[in-house]
Amino acid sequence: MVNQKAVVAGATGLIGKELVQLLLTEPRYTSVTLLVRRSTGISHPKFHEEIIEFDQLEQSHVDLSGADVYCTLGTTIKKAGSQEAFRKVDYSYPLALGRLAKAQGAKQFLIVTSMGANPKSRTFYIRVKGEVEEGLLELKLPALHFFRPSLLLGNREEFRLGERVSTVVSGLVSPLFTGPLRKYKPVHARTVAKSMLQAAQNGMQGSHVYESDQIQAASTGNEGK
């Protein structure tokens, strides 16, 4: 298929930046729109920016009709400043985007959540990720894809000591992530982006969950092996 359009929320994040680069070079997409709070400075013939306030997303003039909607929005409690602010970015904004996608007839919705996402978890982060999955499922979108990566690898703009230490340690023990432990192996942000693009191109209806090991396999063409 050609003449497809993609809409991305969270384009300036670790996965979002990788995803945008893939979308701009993907011939199936003739239009790529980024929903951003400030300009990214990217220049490309099929690229568009919509400068928006996510708090007023559902009142914006964003056009999601027939689009593949990619949501890579996410933050940390430290960066957000509070659990309430974190919840707004990781729950309220994606759910608002999902409602808009449903109302406007988007083709499919693809979102990055987290390994272990569970609305009943005692861990706040994991619980919020599970709650946003639960909320999106209730919308009954025609095609809904959840990506649950483990520790993300890549070059972040901000320094995160905990992640940096975890990345080093994980790299040392990476050969041990085999068999049932494969889903805990760190995954590169570009690998997640590739997996999202592949899932969108498969055009499957209904809801689908991709655990971290499946994300790894799909991006290298080894799914099911």
What key phrases describe this protein's structure?
225 residues; alpha/beta; Rossmann fold; 7 helices
Low-confidence stretches: 159-170
Number of strands: 9
Helical stretch tally? 7
CATH topology: Rossmann fold
CATH level-4 homologous superfamily: NAD(P)-binding Rossmann-like Domain
What is the CATH class designation? Alpha Beta
Radius of gyration over all CA atoms, rounded = 17 Å
**What is the H/E string?**
EHEEEHHEHEEHEHEH
> Strand share of the residues?
15-25%
Overall body shape: globular
Q: What class do helices, strands and sheet pairing give?
A: alpha/beta
Q: Any idea what the CATH architecture is?
A: 3-Layer(aba) Sandwich
Helix content: 25-40%
Could you explain how this protein is built, in words?
The chain is α/β, with parallel strands linked by helices. The chain has a single domain, classed as 3-Layer(aba) Sandwich (Rossmann fold), CATH 3.40.50. The protein is 39% helix and 20% strand. It is built from seven helices and nine strands. It has a seven-stranded parallel sheet with strand order 3-2-1-4-5-6-9, sandwiched between helices. Strands 7-8 form a two-stranded parallel sheet. Strand 7, helix 5 and strand 8 form a beta-alpha-beta unit. The longest helix has 22 residues. The protein is globular, with a radius of gyration of 17 Å. About 5% of the residues have low confidence.
